[in-house]
UniProtKB/TrEMBL annotation:
InterPro entries: LEA_2
Protein name, per record: LEA type 2 family protein
Matches recorded under Gene3D superfamilies: 2.60.40.1820
Signal peptide start and end residues: 1-29
SUPFAM superfamilies named in the record: LEA14-like
Residue ranges annotated for the Late embryogenesis abundant protein LEA-2 subgroup domain, each copy included: 52-134
Alphabetized Pfam families for the sequence: LEA_2
Keywords attached to this entry: Signal
Length: 160
């Protein structure tokens, strides 16, 4: 009789503990976002169209309010990527925005030479992105990303 009673109380206690553990809900983690150039297109007027991929690594949605990123090709300043996308991106997701860049002369020449020779160019983005986590306050995240772009086959004037 005592064994049955003990087993009932033990089973009941385990059920209560299990239910209590489930009631905490998902973890709300805010992680630093990332930005990278997905595609750079040379436009007819000499400016560039940069398709910028913004990645939200947080476990909650974030609204990306503004960005200000300095673009460098190799060691040379190329231009400034500035935008106010007011874009909401879901948890652990990404989205693309297009930013027009007025490149400096040395950067224009470097991209033109790379496209003509069929070779890639390295780039660095450095600056900040302002974002608001779901049910949170506006935060500024420092961004520094280095990568490379290569000519897209069959697409003249396009680097990916």
């Amino acid at each position: 009789m005592k064994a049955k009673r003990w087993m009932r109380w033990t089973g009941l206690a385990l059920c209560v503990l299990l239910l209590a553990a489930c009631s905490t809900g998902p973890v709300r983690r805010v992680s630093e976002p990332s930005a990278r150039i997905q595609q750079l297109t040379v436009r007819a007027d000499g400016s560039w169209s940069a398709e910028l991929r913004i990645e939200n690594f947080s476990s909650i949605p974030m609204r990306f309010d503004s960005l200000d990123l300095a673009l460098r090709l190799g060691d040379d300043a190329a231009g400034q990527l500035q935008a106010k996308p007011a874009l909401s991106i879901g948890p652990e997701s990404a989205d693309i925005i297009t930013v027009v860049v007025k490149p400096q002369a040395a950067a224009k020449l470097a991209v033109a030479e790379a496209l003509a020779a069929g070779r890639g160019v390295s780039y660095t983005l450095e600056g900040h992105i302002d974002a608001t986590p779901d049910q949170g306050k506006l935060r500024s995240f420092d961004i520094k990303r280095s990568s490379a772009l290569s000519p897209a086959p069959g697409l003249p004037g396009v680097l990916r």
